[in-house]
Amino acid sequence: MAEWWKSAVIYQIYPRSFADSNGDGIGDIPGIISKLDYLQTLGVDAVWLSPVYRSPQDDNGYDISDYRDIDPIFGTMEDMDRLISEADKRGIRIIMDLVLNHSSDEHPWFISARQSRESPWHDYYIWRDGAEDAPPSDMGASFGGSAWEWVPEVGQYYFHQFSVKQPDLNWENPALRRELYDMIRWWADKGIGGFRLDVVDHLGKDPDRGITVKGPRLHEFIREMSREAFVKPGLVTVGEAWSADTESAKLYSAPDGSELSMVFQFEHIKLDQAEGGEKWDLAPLPFLRFKEVLNRWQTALSGQGWNSLFWENHDLPRSVSRWGDDGKYRTESAKMLALLLHGLQGTPYIYQGQELGMTNARYPLEEYRDIEIRNMVSERRAKGVPEEEILRSVHAKGRDNARTPMQWTDGKNAGFTDGSPWIKVNPNHADINAASQLEDESSVFRFYQTLIRLRKTHPVFTDGTFEMLLPDHPAVFAYTRTEGGSQLLVMCNFFGDTIPDPLPEAGAGRRLLLSSYPDEKPGILRPYEARLYLKESE
Ligand code: TEU
Ligand code: CA
What we know:
The radius of gyration is 23 Å and the shape is globular. The chain is of the alpha/beta class and 538 residues long. It has 15 helices and 20 strands. A hairpin with a 4-residue loop joins strand 7 and strand 8 (156-159). It binds 1-O-alpha-D-glucopyranosyl-D-fructose and calcium ion (CA). Calcium ion binds next to loops.
């Protein structure tokens, strides 16, 4: 039997920003439960929850202090069990985020580890000798500053790739690995549908050689974890791997199931930044390269792995603001991006609010909460980068663009909370909200709903072979998916100009299944016009 996740659509929830049930301004698990009917209406098969474990929330839950408990801001373990069973009643599986590269510095393992070299947990972390003010190397952390932090009690530095409150776990230690595998099995036994593995490509790191990703033991560790921890049948596992290329992705998502179901790869996500710069150094999207990258991934993994398909997540800006038009053609471009993605081969992920065409937030700097933004702003200020340039980068790429509260209604705080939200609600909720889109047959929500239903109706969405059309066309992204006698043809005008229809014969012998416009105009493609055709030979 084919794996369920190959024909599934997965929805990502960022719990703190989804729905607040008790007026403290922070989204929580009872809030999620209250929206399960909405998710069922949308039609998704599974929900990936960003971390809800006990955490000091230095990095919004990606710093875990107890892997077997729920943070009180999100609810209780009873709430979690209820979420799992209520979701199950609606045919929705719950996917937990697994942060295994690091824990919180407030995890009992680390509290003990930092007190003495004799602690049984000392070796769960990565320590190197050195002298105060003379770190072992000049490696930097991803949220700024050095990757090494001095602990006078033990006279050593610990290694952290993210914030100083996220010490890296030492995967070389077998006892640590066993403990993590136990914990994973414990969650699976609760009825969890699968796991998303945070920065999975960092697990085999080798700091002495400056290696953070793709370390020498990486795939060995993943295979061991797969054997020992992902034992319950039917689990979906998706690894986050910024460093993945098509070759490593074939290992990660090997069809024999020896590693993971699939990985999130970011090659297409890294294109709109200046050569040699960071994500904050903005550059226009090189459209032909974007097509080349997606074409390459579709082709390379065909029969040899499995793609995950996404434009957005909690770390990324809103796709309609990034690659579409979040003004005049917001609806059209949101639909175009939806069709372009959902027509590809792989498992599509929808990030909360993407199904409404939610947009980036353009706030003054003091409204942002994210540790990555805050650290970047102070670093760039210190370097003398002009304030407008910093603001432009944050508006384009800041992680909080994805983290503004879900827009449920046009009412107070967008219906997200009765209290005061932990981060400002986007004022455009007056226009963009779930309540109005549910009522409107031509909304972005309805478009996503239709795409999900079509995927369930036509196996060619899951199995069809991808073939790129018009690879050199400067404005159109077009492809077919073919399986047996069925063929899908997707044609998208990626930009805001009206252009001649480059495939005028596309409609011949094919049925128009879906379009980003309500009517048909032969001979042209209007701004962000996207069409889906189906050919079926009886
Ligand atoms: O993100 C991985 C990661 O590398 C991020 O730092 C990413 O580069 C950045 O967000 C892009 O702007 C994962 C989680 O998705 C992220 O939310 C966490 O902060 C991070 O790991 C640490 O756990
Ligand atoms: Ca709450």
